[in-house]
Amino acid sequence: MSLEAIQQKLEASNQTQLLTFYNQLSDEQKQSLLSQIDGMDFERIDKILKLALETEKQPPSDNAFTPPPQDSVKSVHSDQHASWYSQGLEAIANNKVAVILMAGGQGTRLGSSNPKGMYDVGLPSQKTLFELQAQRIAKVEQLAALKHGKSADDVNILWLVMTSGPTRPTTESFFKQNNYFGLKQQNVIFFEQGVLPCLTESGQVILANKSTVAVAPDGNGGVYNALHSKKSISPSSTQSPIEILTEKGYEYIHAYCVDNSLCKVADPTFIGYSIHSGVDCGAKVVQKRDAHESVGVIALRDSKFSVVEYSEIPSNLAELIDKDTGKLAFNAANIANHFYTTKFLRDDIPKFEHKIAYHIARKKIPTVDLKTGMDVKPDSPNGVKMELFIFDVFPFTNLSLFEVERSDEFSPLKNAPGSKADTPETSRRDVLALSKRYLKENGAVIADDIDIELSPLVTYEGEGLSFVSGKEVVKGGYVKDVEELKTLLH
Q: Alpha-carbon distance 124 to 181, whole Å?
């Protein structure tokens, strides 16, 4: 887009301040700034800000929160488990299942500048989160192929890895260096989470410096917009992620966050349950540890599904007991682990996206004084960042909830080593404990002081281990395959 066209665009949207220092810039800086402005939809940005500010001012209505209906929640322990598992495995075998990994975050709180998926929590294998998750995909492909008489090459789960600007080059390089962890390169697609400009509350876009617009990631809910963007794959891409999914015939999506070390990627049971339920969106949940655990719960807000943050629920509701179950009424803790139909992501979300209110965070945003040209580091918030959360679509869905065991499926990695919870140490502990439990549930005897790590290629969720029954595991460490496991038995 030419300078003249950019000027017209800025005048039409009252954002001419972005070219205040244009004549002082080098040719390269000029081109970079014009390109950045060219990629911005100021009409959309203005609508997002106005709706966010309006929504923020609306007080919650009385009696706004009610527990989810009983018929919307099913447990992994249901007697229909085997049927759901078979249905999900069949969908995988028929190449109908894809996976979206939200991996845009850096490990800053963990003391690492690398993408969080590259973090090693200290397992005997020294595997990163990316490798653990890739091998779970490989294993479930094998299981589906075996069950349905296909070769492993004929079963292909498409893995869409959503990165961010800062993490994309390192993530792609890491996958290439590690040969995509044994997966087929063509089955891994990288795409990039979007950004939104930082704004004043009156809607003026903020300059970070003379040649750069201040931007911030649009939240993990930005996945919905990124799926529809060709540029999220590359500037020259002829297809968006959602178009690729459609063209290749993938009908069902499992989406999850990279920082859950226990995530059952492409979980056949969850997928089968969601397909059986006929829903366009599903969510895994775990029971709260206690009434006051600081976690968002899935509930009804004004009769619509929503994630209600811990801070929003009064104590009397947080402690409310369901008289039928004897458990907490608000007990469905959200773990950012979702099912979608491709049709819902492709056709339905664009119809209501304009109704979803983004969340506002008032921040101190480094900028430049438009009069003096001096850099400014504000002492108090001078602008807003806006983000969407992945669960913000819930009010527009016919949602089903799938309750799973925390110890089997949820161990988040959020905090630095040595913190109170959600640390590398707790992730390591939980992965090792699950391996040990798989062995014990299959009849093995294993001493408490033995730590053992079963590769996901050995077992996905405890299947295929009947040969350990009645045997003692005499040595711990990392077990890469079934043959190696057999050598550890007595």
A: 17
Same structural domain, 344 and 430:
no
| Residues linked to residue 220 through DSSP beta bridges, in sequence order | none
Residue found under tokens 């929003």: 312
Based on the domain organization, do 300 and 190 belong to the same domain? yes
Amino acid occupying residue 117: G
Classify residue 28: in a domain, yes or no. no
- Does residue 363 have a pLDDT over 90? yes
473 to 387, 407, 440, 478: CA distances (angstroms): 49, 22, 10, 13
Residue 1 vs residues 196, 234, 472, 480: alpha-carbon distances, Å: 20, 18, 70, 54
Residue written as token pair 């969908």: 91
Please answer whether residues 458 and 482 qualify as being in contact, where contact means their C-beta atoms are separated by less than 8 angstroms.
yes
The pLDDT of residue 58 is 84
Question: Token digits for 326?
Answer: 């004897």
Clarify whether residues 455 and 357 are in a common domain.
no
**Structural tokens at position 121:** 């929590």
Residue 61 pLDDT exceeds 90: no
How far, in Å, CA of 345 to CA of 211, rounded?
36
Gap between the Cα atoms of 95 and 298, Å rounded: 31
Do 220 and 94 fall within a single domain? yes
In a domain, 167, yes or no: yes
Question: 406 and 282 share a domain?
Answer: yes
How many residues in the chain? 490
Residues 257 and 162 grouped into a single domain: yes
Helix axes 129-147, 81-93, angle to 10 degrees: 90
pLDDT averaged over the chain? 96
- Residue 330, pLDDT above cutoff 70: yes
Residue 485: which pLDDT band, with cuts at 50, 70 and 90?
very high
Which residue range forms the structural domain that includes residue 89? Answer: 65-410
Range list of H helices, 312-376:
315-318, 342-343, 349-352
Query: Residue 180 burial by CB count (10 A; 0-12/13-18/19+): exposed, middle or buried?
Result: middle
pLDDT 10s digits, 250-296: 999 999 999 999 999 999 999 999 999 999 999 999 999 999 998 99
Concatenating the DSSP letter of every residue in 235-290 gives TT-SS-HHHHHHHHT--EEEEEETTBTT--TT-HHHHHHHHHHT-SEEEEEEE-SS
Number of domains present in the structure of the chain: 2
- The DSSP bridge pattern shows strands 158-163 and 97-102 to be parallel
CB atoms within 10 A of CB 104: 29
334 bridge partner residues? 285
pLDDT number for residue 60: 66
Cβ pair 171, 181 in contact under 8 A:
no
Q: Would you say residue 58 lies in a domain?
A: no
